[in-house]
Write a structure and sequence with these properties.
CATH architecture: Alpha-Beta Barrel
Strand order of the largest sheet: 1-2-3-4-5-6-7-8
Radius of gyration: 17 Å
Number of strands: 8
CATH superfamily: Metal-dependent hydrolases
CATH class: Alpha Beta
Shape: globular
Bound molecules: zinc ion
Length: 264
């Protein structure tokens, strides 16, 4: 089996002491590609450095995380656009979106930053990795305006109910990113997922957060992705190999990585 971690942050300081070992463990676990959404300006350098060290396996995204949106977001976005302009190595715009869980102070700015970055997706023809927390209606309100555009991507860290799944899946070019939450008892995903076609799913760890069982509460890493796959296969009552193959193809398609398939 082979896997792609569609959302992981091995460039953050939690991995400073053993970053190479973490990547090597992921490769040994047949996680062939790691897609790396950016967070803010401070993470750009370590992110790009890691992608330079592992050019066949680590692929960068560029974007401003919603919880990093502050007063200066317009200037920050300008700098990020100039980075997008000087490289063709990006595989997506991310992570973008809205997060009103802790703080609604920058709600308007978050919505504006999200919309501007959706427009990058069209301009640069790159898929998006969307973070939505306590903000699904707000995300939907922005995205509705882009319904008739070619924007495609992933709603990362999906852990909602059926109603939320239906709302997100009305965007036909989008997948749901499933992570370690699927392995948590009482998370409710086991009841929701069977109503969602496997063709709509991709896998992610969101490392260093949200470790799957049996590592729950510890630092997460991409080599744990097979634990998530195993759980998904059990929920769908299908063979792991079959699920892995469907999800592999879903991932190549949504991130337009088909040309890399032979070299992963
Ligand atoms: Zn993330």
């Amino acid at each position: 089996m082979r896997f792609i971690d569609t959302h992981t942050h091995p460039f953050v300081e939690e991995f400073d002491a053993d970053r190479s070992a973490v990547i090597e463990r992921a490769l040994a676990a047949d996680v062939r590609a790691l897609l790396l959404p950016n967070i803010d300006l401070s993470t750009v350098e370590p992110l790009l450095l890691l992608c330079k060290q592992y050019p066949k396996h680590c692929f960068p995204m560029m974007g401003l995380h919603p919880t990093s949106v502050g007063e200066d977001y317009v200037a920050v976005l300008d700098k990020m656009v100039s980075l997008l302009d000087c490289s063709t190595s990006y595989v997506g715009i991310g992570e973008i979106g809205m997060d009103l869980y802790w703080d609604k102070q920058f709600c308007k700015q978050q919505a504006d930053a999200f919309e501007k970055q959706l427009q990058w997706s069209i301009a640069y023809q790159l898929p998006v990795s969307i973070h939505s927390r306590a903000a699904v209606q707000e995300i939907d309100a922005v995205m509705k305006r882009y319904m008739d555009t070619p924007i495609k991507g992933v709603f990362h860290c999906f852990s909602g109910n059926l109603e939320e799944a239906a709302l997100l899946l009305k965007y036909p070019n989008f997948k749901l990113g499933i992570n370690g939450v699927a392995t948590f008892k009482n998370a409710g995903l086991a009841e929701v997922l069977p109503a969602i076609p496997l063709e709509k799913l991709v896998l992610e760890t969101d490392a260093p957060y949200l470790s799957p069982v049996p590592f729950r509460g510890k630092r997460n890493e991409s080599s744990y992705l097979p634990y998530i796959l195993k759980r998904i296969a059990a929920i769908y009552h299908k063979e792991e190999e079959e699920v892995a193959s469907v999800i592999w193809n879903n991932t190549l398609a949504v991130f337009s990585l088909e040309h890399l398939a032979g070299s992963l």
